[in-house]
Amino acid sequence: QVQLVESGGGLVQAGGSLRLSCAASGSIFSINAMAWYRQAPGKQRELVATITSGGSTNYADSVKGRCTISRDNAKNTMYLQMNSLKPEDTAVYYCNGRVVVTTTLRAYDFWGQGTQVTVSS
Questions:
Q1: Strand-pair partners of 45
Q2: pLDDT, tens only, 103-112
């Protein structure tokens, strides 16, 4: 089995910064694309940023220029550096990974449990 565990969330004032981490472990052969999603109360889950195994990135317009997604393939870990945070960034942030598992060498989507980010005004 594969586990994705997020960390780094918390309470921060508007204009502040946070760095989220997502550590993957378990029966991992390789990890293809990874992504951060977020879900605010009463809203649908939305894509924040994606990163391929080669390091190509994409961002939602709402975070472009304020957030940086990165990964360390050797550590099976992904990061999201968030700067100039706004109250509207308040949400539960989830990591997602397209993981090739060792047992079948097939790729499956896995999700973390989420980490709360709260930005006060």
A1: none
A2: 999 999 999 9
Residues whose CB falls within 8 Å of the CB of residue 104, separated by 6 or more in sequence, listed in order: none
**Reduced 3-state DSSP string for the chain:** CEEEEEECCEEEECCCCEEEEEEEEECEEEEEEEEEEEECCCCCCEEEEEECCCCCEEECCCCCCCEEEEEEHHHCEEEEEECCCCHHHCEEEEEEEEEEECCCCCEEEEECCCEEEEEEC
* End-to-end CA, the chain: 40
If 0-12 CB within 10 Å is exposed, 13-18 middle and 19+ buried, where does residue 117 land? buried
Chain segment 13-56, per-residue pLDDT in tens:
999 999 999 999 999 999 999 999 999 999 999 999 999 999 99
Q: How confident is the model at residue 119 (pLDDT cuts 50, 70, 90)?
A: very high
